[in-house]
Every structure is written in structure tokens, then in C-alpha cells.
Amino acid sequence: MAKQLHLFALCIFILSQTVSAQLVINEYSCSNRNIIADNYGDYEDYIELYNNSGGSVDLNGWYL
């Protein structure tokens, strides 16, 4: 649980320092055991990003 909280806090910090007015974490799951399966049928943890601007956001070079 602490690992997921640290990852979430890091994501918040990174996003707030770079494109705070355009891109926000809209939803996240650190215990996705049977809610949303990916394209391979696995239940991975996920972070959903939401672009609240009318333009596009370049995510080249971004990673978690």
C-alpha cells in the first residue's frame, strides 16, 4: 500500500510541476483485482490522465 501511495504522490508532483493547467490524474487504481481488464485479460493497476484543455498535450519522453 505504501508503494502505491508513493507512486501516486510522485505522479501528482510531476504533473503539478509541468502541465498543471492541462493534464490531471482523473482516476487511479492501486488494487485492480477484478474491475477493469486490459487488452490481455490482466487486471493491472492503472492511472487515467485527463486533458482539460482544448488542445493536445505532447507526452513524448514521459514515463512512470
Derived structural class? alpha+beta
- The run of helices and strands is HEE
Shape descriptor: globular
Number of strands: 2
Number of helices: 1
Q: What's the arrangement of strands in the largest beta sheet?
A: 1-2
Largest sheet geometry? 2 strands, antiparallel
Spatial gap, N to C terminus: 17 Å
Explained architecture:
By secondary structure, the chain is an alpha+beta fold. The protein has one helix at residues 2-18; strands spanning 23-29, 46-51. It has a two-stranded antiparallel ribbon with strand order 1-2. The longest helix is centred in the N-terminal third of the chain and has 17 residues, at 2-18.
What key attributes describe this structure?
2 strands; alpha+beta; 1 helix; globular; two-stranded antiparallel sheet; 64 residues
What's the short story on this structure?
With 64 residues, this protein is an alpha+beta fold.
Structural topology:
Blueprint: H1 2-18, E1 23-29, E2 46-51
Antiparallel strand pairs: 1-2
